[in-house]
From TrEMBL:
Keyword DNA-binding: no
One matching Pfam family: Spa1_C
Organism: Ligilactobacillus ruminis
PROSITE patterns linked to this entry: PROKAR_LIPOPROTEIN
Segments forming domain Lantibiotic immunity protein Spa1 C-terminal: 42-142, 170-268
Record keywords, A-Z: Lipoprotein
Name of the protein this chain belongs to: NisI/SpaI family lantibiotic immunity lipoprotein
Amino acid sequence: MNKNRKMVIVFLFAFVLCFSLVGCTLQDRIEEYSSGKEQCYLNTENVTRFSYKGNDYTILADTVSNGGLGECIGYIRQLAAIDENGKILLKENVESSTSQSLADLAEKAPEAAYIIPFLNVYAAPNADDYLIVDVNGGYHKAVISENVKDSDTVFDFKKREESINDSFEVNPENATQLLWGGTVYQVTSDMVSDDELGSHIDILAESVTFDTETKIPLSKEDLSKIDWYGKNAGQGRESWFYTDVYEIYGTDKAKAVAVNVNDNYYIAKRQ
């Protein structure tokens, strides 16, 4: 995979950490969310495997919908740079990732063929013989490695859940909007329940802090500057944490989609 394509994948799945001067930081939210959940560990020799409570699990190609998730019981939350054989060359924790550190990740592992995000681990709602792991934009089943059957298909780390050309991104000029190709989607205050979610479309995994009046995203440098003269004393700031994008049942995605912002799904309408 060439360098430019690799960088597209890196930034597509990066959490760009922007620390707000008001309210909780993203790190605070992550630590609170992780409380009581088991940390899981990737197998550095085989990216299709991870450990949970001392047991070795193999990730399968089988996926479930968002509605098929049980309780969140663990987390990996790492970006893994891997070679063509599935060996992990480098890892970066999602919560500490910045655009620069991710660029460094690609530079430090020039032989990496893929960079894949691993997020949370869930229980199966009505079964105890498998777990579910959020990897590469899909919710994949994972079974204890010694229980893998000949009929099971192991997760193909070389396969993307969606084409890069079809990816959504946050509008750099308006943090409350998404861009999909040449189309603009405005995030509304209308919420969507899990039962109304259709197929998974994309994963944004991006944090953005913006001016509440102009909706323009604030850079990390803007947020770290000390306002000695009080020029920004009246400036309102808001932080949004984008994760997944889904279709809405009964709605053409060319007209509207559902996007997860701050742990709730909202309708984003085409403008």
